[in-house]
Amino acid sequence: MKKLISIDIGSTYTKGVLFLYFENESIDEVYLETNRINKLYINGIFNSLIIPINRAQVPTTTNHLADGFFEVLSELLSETKINGKFINQNNIEIKGKEEEKNNDIEVFYSSSAKGGLNIVAIGIVPELTLKTAKLTALSAGGKVTKAYSYRLNKKNIKEIDQINPDIILFTGGTDGGNEEINIHNAKMLSSLSIRPVILYAGNQSCSDEIYEILSLSNFDIKVTENVLPEIDKINIEPAKDCIRDIFLKKIIHGKGLDQIVDKIGFYPEPTPLSVFNFISVIPDNVKKIKGLLQKSTIVQNNIKENAYYENITKLLNKNWESFIAIDMGGATTDFYSYHKDKIEDSNVLLRGLSEPTVKRTVEGDLGMRVSVKAVLESGMELLKIISKDNIINIEENDFIDIFSNYIDKIHENPSYIPENDEEQYFDRIIATICIRLSSLRHAGKYKRIFTVNGEILIQYGKNLRHVKTLIGSGGYLSRMNDMFLKNFLTFSYVNFFNKDSYYEVDEEIPLLPESIDYLKDKEYYLPILANVARKYPLESVLCFIENLEVYD
Amino acid sequence: MKKINIVTGVIGSDCHAVGNKIIEKVFSEAGFNVINLGVMVSQDEFIDAAIESNAKAILVSSLYGQGELDCEGLRSKCVERGIENIILYIGGNLVVGKHDFKEVEEKFKKMGFNRVFSPDVDLKIAVELLKKDIEEKFSEKID
């Protein structure tokens, strides 16, 4: 038996969970009684598993991240009884590389560090290299503070100086393509007063020149493969890996993270990247788990009688080949989709970049508290529709005013928790707007065109119409009570494809899911298990799925 | 040796795909790196791809008779977006009804196309012309 500790240093809270890890060993009676999963292990269906035992949470100590981290760590260690005994902290040696360690505690941790690395993206054509650059930055867990296309000018350089990004992701041109604009941009970047890391992931034909220009100006410049080597082929992985390496080197300086690295022996993973990678491994592991359960006669014969078997089977039978996960916090809404787009309809033509199977977008203006003011601005149109669904008896004319007052109140006090039905209802409206708008920004669209050969639909971006599973996570979505849920989803995903509304939409049709099974990450395990999944993917996915709550 | 990039596609709301595939095959075999955008390509998509790939020529096809409408302003847009030197070719059934090809050719040349081809042109001739034009304009030789 090993103890696994996973800690996520978020922008508001530092959260940790202690898990027990079993592998091919007998389990103490204590756990048999308290943990329903053990039957799977006892009956030999799995030969390893993890069980969450205890959790701890403190507000993130923004000025010195190590304080909050060690507080959570010691709380988890000192308050957890194992086999009726407290863990003796003096005997614990945590230090050492993750892989080399052979003691009974393993620590995994991630840090969202100021909401991710600040990245300035540069490309040539907005719809091609610049779009790919943004996609790359977001997949790597960064946030794109500003994006520039074509030739940089002096004003842009001044702006970048002010933004003072951690990384400049410099792309442009397919391999063998445009060199001239890149060389111009490299020369312009040389005139920056700041010296951020520059990652060049553009046309490889001129990478030597680019490297020379920028290293002569004393930039820390890294060159990697082109994010768009050919017009219809995106290649984001190499640049994504480089951004991760830069993140690790960059963020440990200051804010006390270096102290954690000293003690633990390795770097934190950027939270959004860790979650991104977790999302990527869910479908394969679900398939494996499903296979194991289907092969087991014990499970199959007892599904009806055993509530656990019934529940886990139900969860695993959801559609996991395509799914969405939304992590909505006080400041941002992170939207992940796992979906392989297949064009089956001969009337549909794909235009623009074909997007990757796993995609992350993050909306900095959509959040439940810190960025709530922008929600009001971006979501006014939607708000007017929602206010007609009057379930709390506010006069329609007064609605916007009362609602705005609430927005002001929570904006000033980001840790505010609703105190009555009306306030809960308002929070739900904010959540609805965040989900609705972030979905629209993430998903692709159809454009209808009438040709001599009849109607044609041109598809831009990802088609999420047939995605059936949605995981809601993050402070609000993990806590949300179900009394609002049905309305909430109806408003979030208005069905654009039922006959009546389809023909009312004149030109563009957003490619949002047509119907959704909602799964609530009630323990908010998303970032926590994403950490553990780096070493124990199968066990982490099982633990994640079995702790989801289904709403049919 | 570095291959020369050229962009091709069928412009507008035109879905004729067969000729487009043949063009891709013939020009690839002739030593070009062909970026084929397929059918129903907008002016901006042609230009986006050409800028990003530093293409020397755009080969536009139009089969459904609305080519004139679809191609209006393509050259100006190229100028506007910084690829004023690019070679523009067009070929296909460019206008509806029977017209003297000379008239059609003149019309499209006025619109800024360097060469205009009738639907029955031998593509080998087009290949040779393109090689010649690129050599003259950019002093770059193919093969």
Question: N- to C-terminal separation of chain A?
Answer: 37 Å
> Total domains of chain A, how many?
3
The largest sheet of chain A, given as strand count, sense and whether it forms a barrel, is:
6 strands, mixed
Spatial sequence of strands, sheet with the most strands of chain B: 2-1-3-4-5
Question: Which structural class matches the secondary elements of chain A?
Answer: alpha/beta
Distance between the termini of chain B: 9 Å
Shape of chain A: globular
Write down the overall mean pLDDT of chain A.
85
Task: Please compute the radius of gyration of chain B using only Cα atoms.
Answer: 14 Å
- Low-pLDDT runs of 5+ residues of chain A are 95-101, 495-504
Query: Tally of extended strands of chain B?
Result: 5
User: What is the topology, as strand order, of the major beta sheet of chain A?
Assistant: 16-14-13-19-21-22
Q: How many helices of chain B in DSSP terms?
A: 6
Q: Look at the helices and sheets of chain B and give the structural class.
A: alpha/beta
How many helical elements of chain A?
21
The geometry of chain B reads as globular
Proportion of residues in β-strands of chain A:
15-25%
CATH topology of chain B: Rossmann fold
What string, H for helix and E for strand, traces the elements of chain B in order? EHEHEHHEHEH
